[in-house]
Amino acid sequence: MALETAVTRLLGLEAPIVQAPIGGLSNPRLAAAVSNAGGLGMIAIGFLQPDAIRESIGAARELTDKPFGINLIIDEPQDERLGIALEEGVKFISFFWGDPAPYLHAVHAGGALASLTTGSAAEAKRAVDDGVDVIVAQGWEAGGHVWGEVSTLALVPVVVDAIAPTPVIAAGGITDGRGLAAVLALGAGAAWMGTRFVAAEETPTHPDYVARVLDARETDTFHGSLFDVGWPNAAHRVLRNQTIEAWLAAGRPPSGQRPGEGEVIAHRADGSEIVRYSSMSPRTGTTGDVDALSLWAGQGVGLVHEVLPAGEIVRRVTAQAEAILGELSAGS
Q: Distance (Å, rounded) from C-alpha 329 to C-alpha 245?
């Protein structure tokens, strides 16, 4: 059976899998590999300079002739970055962490589709009423920055019901074909997967970070707003580490009074400093105390056991979901 859904039809996909933008680990090679395998690759451009945006989109286009998208964090004005993406012909624009309404006319005038990541049915309904084309329903199991406080299992069906027939992509805790089959059964048209692609061959994840992901259990994540340098007052989910444990042992003091506040604990590949509590992704080339940094991961991390090519991840997850849904259909 083919996993054709409202999302795959709308976005021109062969597999109902969207690679979450995964912030600082996002790159054209990963996005192209996912798209070439039939899913939708994504590139995060919310913090890139104009030349870097054009370079990233151009590099992805050299590697794939399939659809891919870009992601914008909209807690600050993003008109220029959006304009560049549309000029470069990107047809899927993902918005997160704010109100996309001011940007929707430009998106549609540029011949593109807009999605918004939401944490409640009411927010999803407002977004659709404003003109958003696709809703990403993000459960709080998700890794990285987390917008809402409702679990994926509870959130997805109420969002589906609230905005039908607008397509829904489910996010949060989905790392294998069982998760994909589950959210398709809930009414979603695709899965939005981030943590699984942290351990993809094409992702420039620091080896120590990869090792932590592969060794992690489902109980090893922490949800809070601790890693706030560069992105304050923003809830997120990370792997528990020494920075978190020291803060908990100190009695959870507020920002400004935390253990090691302002301490330089690592350096980026370009030599720039990384202080404790920074909101950044440890990449290949990062040096220093990597385990003390923000190791983004969702609760589905306990199912990630090996590094694979991104295309193989898409194929395995899709095939497993097809088999499960086929078995369920045959037994009905």
A: 46
